[in-house]
Automatic annotation (TrEMBL):
Identification of the protein by name: MARVEL domain-containing protein
Recorded topology in the membrane: Multi-pass membrane protein
InterPro entries: Marvel, MARVEL-CKLF_proteins
Domain named MARVEL: residues: 26-159
Coiled coil stretches, renumbered: none
Length: 161
């Protein structure tokens, strides 16, 4: 009796320049695309929150928002760089619980920080900084959604779906 089975062959593109190796094919995956978007929105959130940090009286929601956005900006940058620097990292890390835990924590804390920040910002309606700070809070909420989607992708990869 003969049994047949299917085999999937994946090809990956690698860009090399002397000793630098970049896993460019990772940027064409959903996981890579979401990480780049999370990083870009994180830069926007950190920049706005840091530039518009009051010097005389720092509120707890503003500080919490700045701390969470900075924390996950750094974490996502390191995660993205490690996946771009190595083929094995991008394939192995997806099969661990690290990405599930990281992205679910980022989702929960980004959501909490953005919602906490949006309340005092909405009370500032009419001030000069209202539109900019509201944009940062909304970017934080969008980033929370991206981290939630990354959690779902990580969960699917972990389960092998």
């Amino acid at each position: 009796m003969t049994m047949s089975h299917s085999v999937t062959i994946r090809t990956q593109t690698m860009t090399t320049s002397s000793t630098v190796v970049i896993n460019t094919s990772y940027l064409r995956t959903w996981s890579g695309i979401f990480k780049v978007l999370e990083l870009a929105l994180g830069v926007v959130c950190v920049a706005i929150a840091a530039i518009h940090m009051p010097t005389y009286y720092v509120t707890t929601p503003h500080l919490f928002f700045l701390l969470m956005t900075t924390t996950f900006l750094i974490g996502t940058a390191i995660l993205l760089m490690s996946c771009l620097a190595s083929f094995s990292t991008s394939s192995i890390i997806a099969k661990t619980t690290y990405e599930i835990l990281y992205h679910s924590a980022a989702f929960a804390l980004y959501l909490a920080a953005s919602l906490t920040f949006i309340i005092p910002v909405s009370d500032m309606k009419g001030s000069q900084q209202y539109n900019v700070l509201m944009a940062a809070a909304v970017c934080g909420l969008v980033n929370a959604v991206l981290y939630f989607l990354s959690t779902l992708i990580a969960l699917r990869a972990y389960r092998g779906l």
